[in-house]
Design a protein that fits this description.
Strand order of the largest sheet: 1-2
Mean pLDDT: 76
Number of strands: 2
Order of helices and strands: HEEHHHH
Shape: flat
Largest sheet: 2 strands, antiparallel
Helix content: 55-70%
Amino acid sequence: MEKTSSCYALKRLARQAKNRLGKRNYYNGKGDFKVIDGGYLADYKLVLLSNKEDEKLYSKVKTILSENEDVINPLGRLVDKTKFSSLSEMDKERYIFNLAEKYRAMKERYKNEKEFSQVG
């Protein structure tokens, strides 16, 4: 998911929350807070909120890939074990899928940076 679409999704979620609070309607009838935008399903827990956390994760990915680009079980090395153990089964799945998507994007970023540094 691109940063612009996640930012847009975050704005829509914030606007919906404000409207619910104003109407004193804390649930949208189904008990979940989701926005469908351009084919993307954004869950309020998965919207990017901190670039600082992503950069910490990228530094871990960079370390893992610099050791060996053909890593076995990279997600297992990236999982925050204390956070993961406190999640429900459904949230664990979301967490892993979100982490896998971030890892894929960060691995691509690492390859691009490595290629650029070798060319320059």
